[in-house]
Amino acid sequence: QESEAAQLNEEWCTLALKRLKEASPLALKVSLRSIREGRYQTLDECLVREYRMSINGISKPFYHDFCEGVRARLVDKDLAPKVFYFAGCTIVFFFSVQSF
Questions:
Q1: Is there a contact between 48 and 54 (Cβ–Cβ < 8 Å)?
Q2: What are the Enoyl-CoA hydratase/isomerase domain coordinates in residue numbering (predicted)?
C-alpha cells in the first residue's frame, strides 16, 4: 500500500513509488502479471517469458509507450513522457496485457 510505504519513510520505498507513478500503465500491468506468473516457473521459463515480453514491448501496437519512455528518460532527459497510450485510463484492456 502506498500509505503504508509513506509511513515507513524508507528511501527505497519512496523511490520505488515515484518510479511506478512514472511508468506506463500497460507496462505496470504486464510487469505485475509477469511477477505473479514467475513465482511458479523455472528460470528457463522466466527467461523465455521475459524475452517475449521485451520483443512484444517494442513491437506494434505497443511500441509507442516504449518509444515515449525512451525519449523522456534517455533522449530529452526531461523524465516527462508526453502521452502514454493508456495514460489516464483506470482500466488497461485485458487483451493488451495478454498479448505480451
A1: no
A2: 5-82
pLDDT tens, position by position, 31-75: 888 889 999 999 999 999 999 888 887 876 667 777 888 888 899
DSSP H helical ranges for 1-100: 2-8, 11-22, 25-38, 43-57, 63-70, 94-98
Task: Report which of residues 85 and 56 the model is more confident about.
Answer: 56
Residue with cell 500500500: 1
Asked if 82 and 48 count as a contact pair (C-beta separation under 8 A), the reply is no
CA atoms within 13 A of residue 65's CA, in its CB half-sphere: 20
| Prediction pTM value | 0.62
DSSP type of residue 18:
H
